[in-house]
Design a protein that fits this description.
Helix content is about 25%, strand content about 30%. It has a single domain (about 5-190), classed as Rossmann fold (3-Layer(aba) Sandwich), CATH 3.40.50.2020. It has a 6-stranded mixed beta sheet with strand order 4-3-2-5-6-7, sandwiched between helices. A two-stranded antiparallel sheet has the order 1-8. With about 190 residues, the chain is of the alpha/beta class. It has 4 helices and 8 strands. Bound molecules: guanosine-5'-monophosphate and magnesium ion (2 copies). One magnesium ion binds next to loops.
């Protein structure tokens, strides 16, 4: 293969660079660590698969540099309904491995758009008697501002555009792209 990656030809423009993501992740981890320096049994990070997988890996290591001990757990959920807008009706594909009663939980999310998925998830986690539930989301779109979903830690506010990379997919592809960008229109025409 020639220099560069196969996906470079498909990306129209970069929205957030690899360096920006790295710096912001360190900053978010510092804030979360400072706010939770004294949690007795550490934080439970709950990654929402698959989109938040990259962020989880980097965020957990960044917390490790200054913060309290963490445990990692993973959930996979899927919104019922067609198309690109979530309905708010959610199905659990993979549940938490362990009981979260009494734990201080940080939900690690890739991006908050309508906020419907997240608001369902917060109710679910609270019903399982966590001591506290907070959210860190790397990206947020303007729509999310309209929903009363408390996202305590936000990395970047981005425009209302469909983005891929750093865990975010289009038809399961582009998750490995190390930055976040917008696809060329012809990529959609191809599929
Ligand atoms: P909502 O907040 O609308 O319930 O859904 C948010 C979920 O939809 C995110 O966690 C993410 O998986 C997906 N999503 C929202 N916006 C985008 C986007 O621009 N690109 C990609 N690839 N996924 C998105
Ligand atoms: Mg997500
Ligand atoms: Mg997706």
């Amino acid at each position: 293969m020639a220099d560069g990656s196969w996906y470079d030809a498909d990306i129209d423009h970069v929205i957030i660079s690899e360096t920006q993501i790295r710096d912001k992740t360190a900053e978010l981890a510092k804030q979360v660590s400072a706010d939770h320096a004294d949690v007795p049994d550490g934080l439970l990070l709950v990654c929402i698969l698959k989109g938040a997988a990259m962020f989880m890996a980097d965020f957990a290591r960044a917390i490790g540099r200054h913060g309290p001990p963490v445990e990692l757990d993973f959930m996979a959920i899927s919104s019922y309904g067609q198309g690109t807008t979530s309905s708010g009706v959610v199905r659990i594909l993979k549940d938490l491995d362990r009981d979260i009663a009494g734990r201080h939980v940080i939900v690690v999310e890739d991006i908050v758009d309508s906020g419907l998925t997240l608001s369902w998830l917060l109710r679910y986690l609270e019903s399982r008697s966590a001591a506290s539930v907070e959210v860190v989301a790397l990206f947020r779109k303007p729509e999310a501002v309209k929903v009363p979903v408390p996202v305590k830690y936000v990395g970047f506010d981005i425009p209302t555009e469909f983005v891929v990379g750093y865990g975010l997919d289009f038809a399961e592809r582009y998750r490995e792209v190390p930055y976040v960008g917008v696809l060329k229109p012809e990529v959609y025409a191809r599929s």
